[in-house]
Specification:
Helix content: 40-55%
CATH architecture: 3-Layer(aba) Sandwich
Number of strands: 6
Radius of gyration: 19 Å
Number of domains: 1
Strand content: 5-15%
CATH superfamily: P-loop containing nucleotide triphosphate hydrolases
CATH class: Alpha Beta
Shape: globular
Length: 296
């Protein structure tokens, strides 16, 4: 049984025997490879928050009878005396039917998201997929195959593992994703963080999160525990400078849309700097290859 399935089975078993449980009232909905695990683990250390080993509950990207969803399973058992419970599934923001299903479940859901430079995020996902699946394409081949993948259509059903795995670059189209999500959940229900800013000052961001969730701020902040960092030694050929230029231009319009919708400060993002001309594409290319440990 897959590790994720084992965690879900344990949660459901605990749910059946628990004296009490809590419905999910907040969700970290994105984005993958942007410290969502760190944010969830730190929030779960709050005495009022019930966490759990299965951070990604994935309820809204699973096959259920959506005419009569099993909401009784979308809960966490009360183990530590918490008052609220959350989910952290980065695929939700990317997959439009997931956000619609969530709105049907709870229109007042409180939402958190962390965003990272789009090319850095995509390359980090590639490295993760390569670690998990050694036969996953080399990075230049992945760019050739997947760079122009669009966002999934509004009427897309439940995603397959391949739908998410091959969306290396589409998952970094934050503007289009956020535009659709804000049509379902108004901005006051959201808090949006920038990846590096969160890691540099997690306590300030935790204060923002707990304020949104209407629970007291931490008196003793938990230790920051980064997990699943991007591997810095990867096999295979590096992308070309032309590959990186292609991706920079791929994100130009969507990044502008995202900036207008989110008000997240992207001035430190290499993709934004390359678009503005303050960072050359060749320097960006070298930086990305160095980070992944890819050598020509």
């Amino acid at each position: 049984m897959h590790r994720r399935a084992r965690r879900r089975a344990r949660r459901l078993a605990r749910l059946e025997t628990a004296e009490s449980s809590l419905p999910i009232s907040f969700a970290i909905v994105g984005v993958q490879k942007a410290a969502t695990t760190t944010l969830f683990r730190m929030l779960s250390a709050h005495p009022d928050v019930e966490g759990g080993p299965d951070k990604e509950m994935r309820f809204f990207v699973q096959d259920h009878d959506w005419s009569d969803p099993p909401y009784e399973t979308y809960r966490r058992p009360v183990v530590h005396g918490g008052r609220i419970a959350g989910d952290a599934t980065p695929a939700y923001l990317f997959w439009p039917s997931a956000m619609r299903r969530m709105r049907d479940y709870e229109p007042e859901m409180r939402l958190l998201a962390v965003f990272r430079d789009p090319i850095e995020r995509s390359f980090s996902q590639w490295a993760m997929e390569r670690t998990r699946h050694p036969h996953f394409p080399d990075l230049p081949e992945a760019i050739a195959a997947y760079a122009d993948e669009p966002l999934p259509p509004e009427d897309a059903g439940t995603p397959t593992p391949g739908d998410l795995q091959h969306a290396l670059f589409a998952r970094s189209l934050y503007g289009g994703q956020l535009e659709r999500a804000l049509a379902l959940f108004p901005e006051p229900q959201w808090r949006m963080f920038e990846f590096r800013a969160f890691l540099q000052d997690p306590h300030r961001h935790l204060d923002i999160a707990t304020d949104l969730l209407a629970i007291p701020r931490f008196t003793d902040y938990p230790d920051e525990t980064q997990r699943m960092a991007t591997p810095d030694s990867n096999e295979g050929p590096p992308p070309s400078v032309t590959d990186v230029e292609r991706l920079v231009q791929r994100y130009a319009d969507d990044l502008a849309l995202f900036e207008g919708l989110s008000h997240v400060d992207t001035s430190g993002w290499p993709t934004r700097q390359a678009l503005d001309g303050t960072l050359s594409v060749s320097d960006l290319h070298q930086r990305l290859c160095d980070r992944l440990g890819l050598r020509a």
